[in-house]
Each structure stands twice: as structure tokens, then as C-alpha cells.
Specification:
It is a single chain. It is built from 8 helices and 35 strands. The protein is of the alpha/beta class. The strands form 7 sheets. Strands 5-6-4-1-7-12-9-13 form an 8-stranded mixed β-sheet. An 8-stranded parallel β-sheet has the order 15-18-21-24-27-30-33-35, covered by helices on one side. Strands 16-19-22-25-28-31-34 form a 7-stranded parallel β-sheet, with no helix packed on it. The relative contact order is 0.11. Bound molecules: guanosine-5'-diphosphate-alpha-D-mannose and magnesium ion.
Length: 366
């Protein structure tokens, strides 16, 4: 079976990191999210993935090439953004005339794709079967009501709901029959599958659902991107840290469990790394540092006695001595932070910026 993956969004809620890296190449425990997804699809017998690309298409194409984990990779390029439904028509020739899987590329999950396909096959006349996942406060997602036969009664994209509401949401993974092509207008514009197509299919009683109950995260906002990493660390490094090749770790440094460390990493005397921390390849950390709950992309350098907690730091950033970086701070690639600077929670700093003085309120530095 083939799988169409939407890989063309701008990742606006992950700026500034997504200004230089497409969301689907964001590392989860040091491997791009899309790489984990393709590996999982391969385990369920998917033999061909079609990536619907647009924003930073070349970067994605260069990384994934023509095959990955034994899966053939093809590309369907858009001249302009076509939303979530337009890419289906755009890839029509590549998809052929058999049912296919389709998914949003920013989903990190252990969905049983085989069971989803089985659920679709068991419903005669189904044009689509949506994977559902139950969450609290589902206003950021497509909210789905089903009947006892798992037929979708209603699909509402991003509704306003009372706080604390728990509902099944669209997990962004579907099996679609080729008859879906007839439901998408042949127009060169952004067409929303969730707003323009699914509600209509539900009305015609041709849309079904399947419930997923394992792991599921949409990495689209920083807190959830961190959460996807945490969930994977609990699988990969629960007992002891995972440490890459050629690591130079001082005997008096401490690396806790729930930590993944890339290749060629250096860690100085007395530093404490983890838990819930990922250091990319080539990261260097000086003496007496404390890094926890954070993700450092490749080649970040951190000078002596600095503390970083709950932050995401882009590639090749240079952090000085005695610096303090707090929760949910987002530093773009190549950012430089001078010695003795404090950056508080909620600050985002655009790539290549130099920060000379402390930032003590949540701000965006452009
Ligand atoms: N090729 C292409 N072209 N891909 C696009 C485009 C486009 O114009 N716009 C967005 N995408 C991709 C994004 O990269 C992402 O992988 C996917 O489409 C979904 O877009 P998001 O922007 O992440 O949507 P969302 O998270 O707000 O909502 C969607 O996902 C939820 C589940 O996480 C909807 O499908 C919701 O109904 C759903 O609950
Ligand atoms: Mg999303």
C-alpha cells in the first residue's frame, strides 16, 4: 500500500526554529520525526511513501532521497500551498486507483496502521476512515463524533469548547478510497480536507473512524515537540542514557537516564545532563553546567557554569559562561548568547541573533 504524507506546512508555531528547518526534519531523540514515521510505516508493509512537499522542498528531498528503511520515496511538489486536500489531487497520478494511507507529517505516534487499514476494509462503502485519539481540551484539532458503528456523525475543525472537555480528535492519519478525488475541487488554492471535505463525507455517511490508544503527539507547538521527545526517551533511555560514538565525557560529569547524546559530543568536568534531555551530534558542554529537560540541536556549544532548563536550542548556537536559560525558551540556529546573560521562560530568539543582555520578560527577539 502507498502512503501520502503532507510535508509542506510552514510550521509557523515552531518559529524561529522552523525558519531554517522544515517541521518534518525536527529531530526526536536525534532522528527526524519523518524518519521515525517511515520506519514505522515500513513495519506495517507500506512500500511506497509520497511526500507532498512545498515549503523548503529541496531540504526534505535532499535528506530523504529515493528510498528509506526499504520504502520507495516519491515527491509530489506544489507550486503554491494547496492546504491539506489539494495535495491529494496533485498526487493523483502517483497514488493510482487503490485505497491508500494518508497522514499529516507532524504526527509522532505508534499507530497500528495495519489495524486502521483493516478497519477501513471492514466497512462497505467507506470513502475514508479516520484515526481518532481522545484528548482533553481538543480545540486545536478536528473534533469527531461517531455512532456505535464507528460511523462519523460530525466532523468540526478547531471548535471552541468549554475548558476540560474530553473528546476524540482527528489524529491526522487516514485510509482513503480513490473516490475521494471526486470530493476535492480542481482548483489551484488551499483546500482544507477538514473543513471542505470531511464534513461533507460525514453528512453522506461515508466516513468511518478507528480509535488509537497508544502514543500520539502533534509536534506543531514547542511544548508538544518537547513532549514527543520525552515520550521517546521513556522508550529508549528509561534505564540508562543512550550515548553516541566518540563521546568525550569527563569522568566527573554525570549523565542521567532519560537522556540521549549524539555522536562526537564533549562534556566537561562536573556537568550534569538530564533527565529528559537530548544533545545533538557535535554538541560541546563545558565544566559545571546543568542541562535538563532540553533539546540541543547539532553542534551547539555551551560554555562553563551555564544552566539550561526546558529549552530548545537550534543548530550551532553558542551559549556563553554563567548563562541561565529557562523553560520554553526557543533559540534559533546560530544564536550567540554572551556571558552572564539570563533568558527567562517564553522568550524566542530569531536565528543568528547575538544576545548581549539579559531578557527578563517573554519576548520575541527578531
Ligand atoms: N503539502 C502541503 N501543502 N502540506 C501542508 C500544507 C500545504 O499547503 N499545509 C499544511 N501542510 C501539512 C503540514 O506540514 C502538516 O504535516 C499537515 O499538513 C497538517 O497541518 P498542520 O498545520 O499541522 O494542521 P493542524 O495540526 O493545525 O491540524 C491538523 O492536524 C490535527 C492533528 O494533529 C488537522 O488535520 C486537524 O483536524 C487534526 O486534528
Ligand atoms: Mg499539526
Amino acid at each position: 500500500m502507498k502512503c501520502l504524507i503532507l510535508a509542506g506546512g510552514f510550521g509557523t508555531r515552531l518559529r524561529p526554529l522552523s525558519c531554517t528547518l522544515p517541521k518534518l526534519l525536527f529531530p526526536v531523540a536525534n532522528r527526524p520525526i519523518l524518519d521515525w514515521t517511515i520506519e514505522n510505516l515500513a513495519k506495517h508493509g507500506i512500500d511506497e511513501v509520497i511526500l507532498a512537499v512545498n515549503y523548503m522542498a529541496e531540504t526534505i528531498m535532499r535528506y530523504f532521497g529515493t528510498s528509506r528503511h526499504g520504502v520507495i520515496i516519491r515527491y509530489s511538489r506544489e507550486k503554491r500551498p494547496l492546504g491539506t486536500a489539494g495535495p491529494i489531487l496533485n498526487a493523483r497520478k502517483l497514488l493510482g486507483d487503490e485505497p491508500f494511507l494518508m497522514m499529516n507529517g507532524d504526527i509522532f505516534s505508534d499507530i497500528n496502521y495495519s489495524a486502521l487499514v483493516e478497519a477501513h476494509r471492514s466497512k462497505e462503502g467507506a470513502v475514508g476512515t479516520i484515526c481518532l485519539y481522545e484528548i482533553e481540551n481538543p480545540g486545536r484539532y478536528g473534533v469527531v463524533d461517531v455512532d456505535e458503528d464507528m460511523r462519523v456523525k460530525r466532523f468540526v475543525e478547531k471548535p471552541t469548547l468549554a475548558p476540560g472537555t474530553k473528546k476524540p480528535v482527528n489524529a491526522g492519519v487516514y485510509v482513503l478510497d480513490p473516490s475521494i478525488f471526486d470530493y476535492i475541487p480542481e482548483e489551484e488554492r488551499k483546500i482544507s480536507l477538514e473543513v471542505e471535505v470531511f464534513p461533507k463525507l460525514a453528512e453522506e455517511r461515508k466516513l468511518y473512524a478507528y480509535r488509537h490508544e497508544g502514543m500520539w503527539v502533534d509536534i506543531g507547538v514547542p511544548a508538544d515537540y518537547l513532549r514527543a521527545n520525552r515520550l521517546l526517551l521513556e522508550k529508549l533511555a528509561a534505564e540508562k542514557p543512550v550515548i553516541g560514538e566518540n563521546a568525550k565525557i569527563h569522568p566527573e560529569a554525570k549523565i542521567s537516564n532519560l537522556t540521549v547524546i549524539g555522536d562526537d559530543v564533549e562534556i566537561g568536568k562536573g556537568s550534569y545532563i538530564g533527565p529528559y534531555t537530548v544533545l545533538g551530534n557535535g554538541v560541546s558542554v563545558g565544566e559545571g553546567c546543568r542541562i535538563e529537560g532540553s533539546i540541543l540541536f547539532d553542534d551547539v556549544s555551551v560554555d562553563n557554569y551555564t544552566s539550561i532548563k526546558g529549552a530548545i536550542i537550534g543548530k550551532s548556537a553558542m551559549i556563553g559562561k554563567w548563562v541561565k536559560i529557562e523553560e520554553e525558551a526557543l533559540l534559533g540556529d546560530y544564536v550567540e548568547v554572551a556571558d552572564n546573560v539570563t533568558i527567562v521562560s517564553g522568550v524566542t530568539i530569531c536565528h543568528s541573533k547575538s544576545v548581549e543582555e539579559s531578557i527578563l520578560e517573554p519576548t520575541r527577539i527578531m
